[in-house]
Amino acid sequence: MKKAVILFLLVLATKGHSQFAKNMFSKDPIINLENFQKQRVYFGYYLGFNSFDFKFDYKTPVPNDIQVKKTTGFNVGVVADLRLQEYISLRFEPGLYYTKRDLYFSGVGDLESEYLREVNSTYIHFPLLLKFSALRTGNIRPYLVGGMSTTLNLSSNSKSKDDNYQQKFRVKQWTAAYEVGLGIDIFTEYFIFSPSVRGMFGITDELIRDNTSPSGYTDNIDSMKSRAILINFTFH
Asked: Residue 212 sits in a domain of what CATH number?
């Protein structure tokens, strides 16, 4: 994830060749795509990275939390933007997200098959967001974005009758979250490039409890919710 953040900052900071810099950042730049965002509806696509985590809440305090090892996943999707007024638009950004998390449970066994659970997730993500754009300065326009999302987990094993005692860590198929973030529209001669960073915070419990009782894996978990950092590079 650190590499993805560094890449994001480098994209924003890279100067490019002199003509590009003149057009984008000079006192009197050549205005690119001046009327593009005045369209009622326009479309695009995005590529990006993600880092998903789980937030655990417990019924009673525990000496050792469940440890989550995160990895960097990837995102790909499309964008539909509906202009509501000059500075506000409604965005729908369905996409495919892939991520992996390793969970380490303490006190449930000594073998890796007992204390380690790999959670591979392939999500179809449906965020509906409001985009609040600032006044355009030359070929730069920063913005804030926020809204709600729902997610279908294609890797969900919610219908499985096995549980952790058969090495099955089960999660629900549908979840919901809210999202907030910021980005910047960079108007080039031929397209708009929009790097952005966004936080996603789950609001629904994803965990399916074990059938076995008592369970050292799930009995003390009050809720388990996804949260993530999403870095997208959008092209219009």
From this structure: 2.40.160.20
Per residue of the chain (236 residues), give pLDDT as tens. 555 555 555 554 454 344 444 554 555 668 887 777 778 898 999 999 999 999 999 999 888 889 999 999 999 999 999 999 989 999 999 999 999 999 999 888 788 888 899 999 999 999 999 999 999 888 999 999 999 999 999 999 998 999 899 889 999 999 999 999 999 999 998 899 999 999 999 999 999 999 988 888 999 999 999 999 999 999 99
Task: Give the count of beta carbons closer than 10 Å to the beta carbon of residue 96.
Answer: 13
pTM above 0.85, yes or no: no
- Rounded Cα distance between 176 and 127, Å, is 10
Half-sphere exposure of 32 (CA within 13 A, CB side): 19
Of residues 49, 48, 58, the one with CA closest to residue 225: 58
Domain range for 200 is 2-235
Count how many domains the chain has: 1
